[in-house]
Design brief:
This protein is mainly α. Helix content is 58%, strand content 6%. It has seven helices and two strands. A two-stranded parallel sheet has the order 1-2. Helix 2 (62-70) links the parallel strand 1 (49-53) and strand 2. Helix 1 runs parallel beside helix 2 (62-70) and helix 5 (94-118) packs across helix 6. The longest helix is centred in the middle third of the chain and has 25 residues, at 94-118. The mean pLDDT is 88.
């Protein structure tokens, strides 16, 4: 699968984020984005900015916090059980993203069953192995990125709802 340029694709053996994936995200996405925004806004390289994290332990390690500090980035930690109210993307984007991906899966699954019926086969279990589903999920993520680019108001609304704009 070929992803569009600018995508940061990484994974762990158990598929859970950890300190290494957090540092990779920061090095490949967050820090370049912050540098670009400082430049676009005519701000000094050491201008302080803010990230909003929940208390997920991979985001709160000493190494992660030191890397953020070295890049002049302050961290606001959302209190436990409050991300659904205070973290902008949780407030406005996550539900839509989950619904989009769920719909993509449902359409694909229904199509697989429909193909079996059209061939007049007995409907068997649809292949849900990771070898089958991972490339599909990657395609759905690319579609999702295009959708989100066309609807930036979704993210902006999250900042309004969280009281940050």
């Amino acid at each position: 699968m070929t992803f569009p340029s600018g995508c940061c694709i990484t994974c762990t053996e158990n598929h859970w984020a950890n300190e290494v994936t957090t540092l990779t995200y920061m090095d490949e996405i967050l820090f370049p984005y912050v540098r670009q925004k400082r430049k676009e806004l005519g701000l000094p390289d050491k201008q302080t900015c803010l990230v909003i994290f929940d208390r997920f332990k991979a985001q709160c390690t000493t190494t992660v916090l030191e890397a953020l500090e070295e890049n002049h980035i302050l961290v606001a930690l959302v209190p436990a059980n409050c991300t659904d109210r205070l973290q902008p993307l949780d407030v406005s984007v996550n539900k839509s993203v989950k619904e989009f991906l769920r719909d993509q899966f449902h359409h694909w699954y229904a199509s697989e069953v429909s193909k079996q019926l059209q061939r007049k086969e007995d409907v068997k279990l649809v292949n849900l192995s990771l070898v089958c589903v991972k490339p599909l999920a990657a395609t759905w993520l690319i579609k999702l990125m295009d959708y989100l680019k066309q609807h930036p108001e979704m993210a902006k609304n999250g900042f309004h709802k969280a009281g940050l704009l």
